[in-house]
Amino acid sequence: MARPEKLAVVDEVRDKLRDADAAVLTEYRGLTVTELAELRGALRPASTEYKVFKNTLARRAVEDAGLPDLLPLLEGPVAIAFVHGDAVVAAKALRDFGRTNPALVIKGGLLGPRILSPDEVRSLADIEPREVLLARLAGGFQAPLTKAAGLFQAFTRNFAYGMLAYIDQRGAAEPASAPPEPDTPPAATEPDAGPPAADADPAPDAASPEASGEASSDPDSGPPEAESAASEES
């Protein structure tokens, strides 16, 4: 490639990195021309452009853009996905394509000024849609709405960057807390039976003479049957 053409490629990569809301670096070794075309088609609805550059030229562009942390990612056959819009949508498209095409390997990325690891790029694909997150925040999801809204306003270029920064800020602000103790059911208590009743004589037997009031007043008198027998003998 002639020198003017090389310089044009370096300028193109540098400008695309600066203008993009996010960028994802991937290894495409093993993908056919047809599969690469399918990947570009899958990324197009996410406002993402997928291009292959020579690593020597890409390294120069990365240095010119002031992104030296991206240099270790420019090894092997690398293609760059330039995202103009929501990085979450682009990350989902890359993840879904990689499920059926394992030759596509995510090496890392760039989100605003932040360098992303492969795991962080994959975590973007797991973030819920913007509408769902905003609805949960409006309902008081995990933080005062004013705090979350102020943070998102600081990152209007990219919603996903605001989400990652929000997670980082909460992790740094909240002190570690002891794990909650397991719930212990309260000990069963006996019902209050009240003060013990005073000792009392048992109730008189209904069949006893005292209860019926038919007892004789003379203790020496016998039963009526005995008196009748004595009178007959005399």
3D structure, described in words:
- The chain has 234 residues and is α+β, with helices and mostly antiparallel strands.
- It has ten helices and five strands, in the order H-E-H-E-H-E-H-E-E-H-H-H-H-H-H.
- It has a five-stranded antiparallel sheet with strand order 2-3-1-4-5.
- The model is unreliable at 196-234 (pLDDT under 50).
CA distance, first residue to last residue: 162 Å
Number of strand segments: 5
Query: Could you describe the largest sheet, including whether it forms a barrel?
Result: 5 strands, antiparallel
Q: Which percent range fits the helix content?
A: 40-55%
Strand/helix succession: HEHEHEHEEHHHHHH
The strand order across the widest sheet is 2-3-1-4-5
Structural class: alpha+beta
Shape: globular
Number of helices: 10
Q: How confident is the prediction overall: mean pLDDT? A: 74
Radius of gyration: 45 Å
DSSP strand content: 5-15%
Give unreliable regions as ranges: 196-234
Output the keywords:
single chain, 234 residues, alpha+beta, five-stranded antiparallel beta sheet, 10 helices, disordered C terminus
Q: Briefly, what is this?
A:
The protein has ten helices and five strands, in the order αβαβαβαββαααααα. With 234 residues, the chain is of the alpha+beta class. The N and C termini lie far apart (162 Å).
SSE topology sketch:
Elements lengths: L2 H17 L2 E6 L5 H11 L4 E5 L2 H10 L13 E6 L3 H14 L4 E7 L2 E3 L1 H8 L4 H9 L6 H9 L5 H15 L35 H4 L11 H10 L1
Antiparallel strand pairs: 1-3, 1-4, 2-3, 4-5
Helix pairs in contact: 1-3, 4-5, 7-8
